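Journal club side-thread
Mid-discussion, someone asked how the predicted structure for our own chain would compare to the paper's figures. Pasting it here so we can look after the session.
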Amino acid sequence: MNNITFPKNFMWGGAIAANQCEGAWNIDGKGASTADVMTAGDKHTPRRITMDLEEGAFYPTHEAIDFYHRYKEDIALFAEMGFKTLRVSIAWSRIFPNGDDAQPNEKGLQFYEDLFKELKKYNIEPLVTLWHNETPLNLVKAYNGWASRELVNFFATYCETVFKRYKGLVKYWITFNEINALMRPLGNWNHGAIIHEGTEYFIHQKDNVNMRFQALHHQFVASAKAVKLAHEIDDHYQVGCMICYITTYPLTCNPADILKAQKEDHVLNLFSSDVQVFGNYPYYIKKYFKENSINIITNEEDDRILKEGTVDFYSLSYYMSVCTSEESKEEKVDGNIMGGFKNPYLETSDWDWQIDPMGLRWTLHHVYDRYQIPVMVTENGLGAKDNVEADGSIHDDYRIAYLRDHIVEMGKAIEEGVDLICYTPWGCIDLVSVSTGEMEKRYGMIYVDKDNKGNGTLARQKKDSFFWYQKVIESNGALI
């Protein structure tokens, strides 16, 4: 039993993304996206970008878990768990196959209309991400992705199209998933849709720091334009930012470590949301730009656009924390987008991510204290290997323990005054891992019969965590 009370209208649910679950990558008028030309990898082998498809290569997004054809079955399972909301994303290239098309693809528009209506049938509120780690591939080939200012208007056209089409079906929107991921070289392809000559592995891309920050500026402007458009089309629309929050502690109480942790928090975690919530570039980023020879090109109207397009709520992904230090040679650990020094007080997952539920509570206070707008935890979960028993059962106590501990800390944050309104743990159903392309790095409470090589029946199976989360939602967080 949990003696902390969650708000009566708290939005319990789960989160998925189009490129990791839909499949149907080239049917009903959909164009190729940046995710569709990434081969499978694993924990030790990075995924490859192949711009043109290679015979014999395996592209896990092409079928993914076939949510495109099975969404009714999956939504029925989400409803059985008691979901109040489902975070989904729209594949831009399903609406505008090339990204710069004059007219949208009606079959793509109809698919998402049917999807949102199916959710509404079960009283599940759609929480819709407009851009989630995929850009129409043509926009890379023709414009070099978000490095080009032209994508701002293409994105605005796409947003206006879906805002008008789904008026009355959707209330909550997120502009860019983990927008701050472009702060890291890893973000070149997955987040910026930027390609450099001579690049084969996306993790090992050549890096042009200035180009990355130019791309990020274009996404800031595109996000602000989307927010303003949404409010003009429907004043009931609520639009938020989404940050990959890597909670970073100083490894020691050495003042140098404390200052380093503060700087990394400013630049890697807070910068992007400062722009999207406050509508301007923060003071501290000027020195960072100077230190890294970053000189971005802006238009005269950009200051006004950013100020007019500030978000209504703040959302974040939270999986783990790391430590940082000026001098330490301590063991390092991996993480979502970035890793850091190992914290001796924490355990790690199968993929070497540190498990830190109390860090989520600290982070919720940190961001709410800064922004004073409603907060959503839109990704949180444990990637692990699951074993199917002879009787078909899947005992994932490790996942239950991870989620339980984080929910407890969320409840404490709410009790302490944080306006947390939503929790959508990542991968409520098993799906393709964006970092490795694996299926066997499983996050779901619903098992999907598919392996890393694409073999399997795609049959769905409830894990122990399914029944546990069902009780959590039914009791509004009391039975954990």
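Post-session note: The radius of gyration is 21 Å.
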